[in-house]
Amino acid sequence: MKAVVFSEFGGPEVLRVADVPTPEPGPGEVRVKVHAASLNHLDLWVRRGLPIEITMPHIGGSDVAGVVDAVGAGVEGVVPGTRVVVDPSLDYDWYEGEPRGPGIDDPPLRLIGEHTQGGFAEYCVVPARNVVQLPDHVSYETAAAAGLVFVTAWHALIGRAGLKAGDCVLITGASGGVSTAAIQIARHAGAYVYAVTSGPDNVRRVRELGADLVYDRLEVDDWSTAVWNDTERRGVDIALDSVGGPVFASCLRALGVGGRLVTYGGTAGPRIEADVRLLFWKQLSIMGSTMGSPAEFRRVMRLVFEGAFAPVIHEVIPLEDLRRGHEMLEGGEVFGKLVVRP
Length: 342
What we know:
This protein has nine helices and 17 strands. The protein is an alpha/beta fold. The chain folds into two domains: 2-134 and 312-341, Medium-chain alcohol dehydrogenases, catalytic domain (Quinone Oxidoreductase, Chain A, domain 1), CATH 3.90.180.10; 152-288, Alpha-Beta Complex (Quinone Oxidoreductase, Chain A, domain 1), CATH 3.90.180. Strands 3, 4, 5, 8, 9, 16 and 17 form a seven-stranded mixed beta sheet that branches.
C-alpha cells in the first residue's frame, strides 16, 4: 500500500511517500480502508522526536475515517463495509479505571499514529472497540477533521473545567483545530467567549465561529488587560490554553476569583512562568487535560453527526502533499484542520 513515512526524526523533509506492506488485523482489530485522515500538531511533535519509542519507518495520523475492510479474530459486531470514524485514544481508562492490583500494571494512554502506525496510508489497523459507525450523511472528511480536536476540547471544557451556562471563557490560539472546536462547544453550552488570535482574517473567522470578543494579539499590546477591562474587572471563569510560554501568565492575569486555567498543549515550548501571588490571591486552579474518554468521544461525535458542531476544514490535500501540510501547520498557515485524502 501507499503511505507517507519517516525513518528518522527531523523537519518536514524527512517525510516521504513509500510502498509498504498492507497491515493485517490481529485479534480484536479491524483494518480500515482510509478515505480521510487529518493533521494535528501532535504529528509535528512525533516527527520531530518525542521521548517515546516508535516503530520506524513510522506512519503518522491519529484521525482516521473510512470503511472497515477486514476484521481480526474474535471481532464481533463490526462487519466489513461499515463506514467508521476512529477514536484515536488507546487505553484511556488508565486515567479513570480502578487499579487491577499492585502486581498488574495498567497500560498508560497511547495514541494511534503516535505510539502505533497511523492513518496517513491507504489502510490502517485499529482496535475494533475504537471504531464508531459513521452515518451516511456525514462525510469522511468531516469525521476525520472532528475526532481528536472535539474530544480534546470537550474533555477540557466540560470534563475538567466544568463549563456551564453563563460562564465567561477565554480561548487562546483561537485559529487552531482544538480551539475552533472549543469555541463551538462553549457557545453550545451557553458561555460567553473571549478569543485570542492573530491577523484580521483570523479575527473575522473566529467571530464567525461564535466568539463574542476577539483580540488580535498583533494589534493589542496586552490582551490580558483588555480581557480584564472588558469583563468589568471581574475576569473570566475559564481560560483554555494550548500555547504555554508567556501566554500562560497572561491567562492567569485574565482569570477572575476562583478561575480555572486548563492547559492541553504547549506550542510555544514546555517552560512556563507564573506569578504565584495570582494563584493564592485569586484562589485559582490550574488543570491539565489530555484527549478524552471513549464515552466523551462518542458523546461529542454524536453532536457532530447531529450537526450541532462542524469542524473547520482549511483544505483537503492528497496524501502526496502531506509534507506541504506539515510545512503549512508548522508555519501557522492553517485555520482549523488540514484533511488528507489517500
